[in-house]
Every structure is written in structure tokens, then in C-alpha cells.
Amino acid sequence: MIKLVHIVCLSLMLVTTNQQQRTLGKFQEIFAWKQLTYYINGIQLLQDRFSEDIVDRSKRQADRLIFSDDLPSENSTWNEGPDNDRPIWQATTQSPFVNPDEEAGRFFIQYNNLPMGVERVADRLFITVPRRRYGIPSTVNYISLSRDGRSRSPALRPYPDIARARSLASVYRTRADTCGRLWMVDTGLMEIPGNPQQIQPPAIVIYDLSTNTQILRYPFKSTDIPAANTPTGLASITVDITGPCDEAFAYVPDLTTYGLIVYSMLDNNSWRVTHNYFHFNPLAGNFRISGENFQWSDGIFSITLTEPEADGCRTAYFHPMASTQEFSVSTCVLKNSSLSSMSDYYRLYSYVGNRGEGSQSTMHGYHARSSVIFFAEIGRDAISCWNTGTALNPANIAILARDRQRLSYPSDLHVSNDEVWVMSNTLPRFGYSRLDTNEYNFYIYRGIVNDLISGTVCSTLPFYN
């Protein structure tokens, strides 16, 4: 354990040394990419790859892209070493997920790979690339901070390996729990414009991080998914553990059809709850980001949890994305599947306050030791904070970092111990115009909580790392 901590600390020192000139407010840029690349079985994918390239066996060998119908053994180490005889992708109907026909011959189209989520777990950064276009080799990936931290733009490695990674259709964000597990929602949907394909049922998927094996795939029930477009809105997951690991709960916001799916691991059961607070605010649906003007109607987007209170439950703070308001509810309410039938159920939810004009936010995260919530504000190209011990209003919101280019659409924010990790990805320009691949488009930042909030309205008494 001491050796691992030493490796992680050394890796972060190397990263920080290499990035000393690249700061944003009190955030440090850790990685940045013009376009993503992948490292798969000793091969670095630097340019587009199509299945039409494999007609000629000699070309297959020259490209070092080896296709095989043989499934790997359980002991295959797909992402390690330069053994060119190992297959890096299963071009066969036996494959867990995508085959060349389903992807119209596209294996890797570099421009289409847009990162969405970031999550730090010890030495690894998990980075997700949802399948919103063709040509995405792996939707869940990782970077080793100790191995890859010297590069500003390291290649992504499929998690846990390329064969098993392709059992996942599309994942927006991951979250790790205190029991050494990585949680995610596989939407099961290839969101190809004009040709969406529901490849498999949307499901909660959990990996054991110590063995890198999948330990659960829970397909949602039909009552959880009220419409065909619901899976497009299952973009985040929040894990709640207040007792034994096998009694965990998970909360999955549905931003498209305005609901919340609650999952109980002990009962292996799920249920859907609805509330008016889950809907978007039509007065906050106009956006101007990355030079693009548009309207969005995204509802409940992010949930973050306080520490357990005297009753053993937490306060769940949440907000719609097309909104500047914040709301809350006790997790005791969410965990009780029968309460939603009460005639005054709506009274169990609370309006917390308004962050201010232009403060629409994707993800937010709670830091327990300071009682501060951090917001990824897409409306202001900013990261902000609020101390939950104060009233939520514009005067009690502090802007910690702001930049129209380098923080254009902060797509993910996660608090890990005393660190805040942020991903920004210029999504609106990708969706409505075109990225300039000669400039940096995707960024990952890290900030130390104590440093970030020092001297702001978010700080009360300092805590020490």
C-alpha cells in the first residue's frame, strides 16, 4: 500500500512539473488533446482505421491491426506489451458488441472521439467516450498517471481490455465507490445522428477494480424506461453507501424524460420516481457556448450527496442542466419505493436556491470536509463553488476559474478525496459546427480544494490536506 501511494504521489509530481505553465485560476492542467488517440495491444492508433483495410492480409499485417475470430482467454493481457499476434478487436458475430456491419466498416474515426467523463481512482484516470458517432474503439478507457503522466496528450487504453471493453455500448460517466468498485450506466445506444441503434438494453454495470472484472450488469426494467429516447438521458450515476457494500444504492438521473431511477443492490431491484423539480426551466434553456447559439431542454442532470446525517440518510442535491436552480431531497425518500404514491409526495422535496444568471451546470460534487459543492458551469464556461452552510444565492457563489476556450463546456466534475477533477470538451462546437483539430479541444484539470476555496465566500475555516 505504501509503495502504491509513493508511485501515485511521484506520478502526480511528474505531471505537475511538466504542466507548471498551464494553469487556469488555481486549477492545474493535467492533460490536453487536440484529438484523442488510443493504445491497444502495443499499437497506437493515430489515424482513421476502416474494416475495408483488412481485405488484403498483407495490408492487415503491415498496419499491425490484427483481426481474429478467436476470443481471448481470461488471462489475456490485452493492453500490455507489443505482442502483435494478439487480436486487438473481434471482427466476428461472436463478439460481445460491435461488429463491422453494425459500424458500417468503421473501427476508429479519430475526429468522432469526444471524451465526456473523468474519474480518478488511485493511479488511474477513467475517461469515457460515449458512442455518439461511428468509429469509437472503446467507450470506457483509462490513463495510468505513473506510466502516462509525462505526456500532455497520452493515448487512452480500453478498460479493462479491448475485448471486454466492447461489451459496453456507450457510457457517459463513471463513478467509483468506497468498496473498490467502478459504477456506470451503459445506455446500450449508439447515438448515430439519423441512425440511432439500441444495441442492447440500458443497464447499470459494475466492475471490481481489484480484479478488473465485471461483477454486475443490471438491465433496467421496462417501467424504468418510459420512452424510446429515455436511454439518451442516462448520462450519470451517483452511488450511495451508508452500510455494508452489498447494500449500496445508486441514483440515475434521466435528463431526457425527466425522472430518476433508484437501484437497490441488496434487493437487485429498481424503481422510477418523478417530480416537477426534475424538469428544465424554459427561462434558462437558451445557450451561447463555443460561439454557438442553441436551445436545450435537459432536465435533472447531476446528483451529489452530503455525509450521512443522524437518521442515517444523506441530503441529495440535484439540478436540471437547463436551469440555474438547485433542489434537494433526503435519500430516505429516494430509498423508499412506496413513498411516491403519497398524495403530498411533492412536499418531500425542497427548493434550495438560485445560483444566478447564466449558471447552468452539468455535474457538481460535494466535498465533505469543507461542506462545499463545486459546479461545472457550462453557461459561464466556469467552475464555481458554494458553501452549503450559507444560503444559495449569487452572492454566495464564487467563480474559481473561467475561460471561454479552455473551459468550453465542462462536461464532468468529480471530487476525489481533497481534489476536484474537471473535464472540458467543447461539445457544442463539435455538435453544431466543427472542431479545429489544429488546436487543443479537450482538457483535464485538477485542483486542491483548500487552495481553490481559500479567500472566497466558499471558505469558512481551512482544513488541512
Automatic annotation (TrEMBL):
Main location class: secreted
GO CC terms of this entry: extracellular region
Gene3D superfamilies, A to Z: TolB, C-terminal domain (2.120.10.30)
A Pfam family assignment: MRJP
Signal peptide coordinates: 1-20
UniProt-annotated location(s): Secreted
Keyword vocabulary terms for this entry: Secreted, Signal
Family according to the record: Belongs to the major royal jelly protein family.
Protein name: L-dopachrome tautomerase yellow-f2 isoform X1
Lineage, top ranks: Eukaryota, Metazoa, Ecdysozoa, Arthropoda, Hexapoda
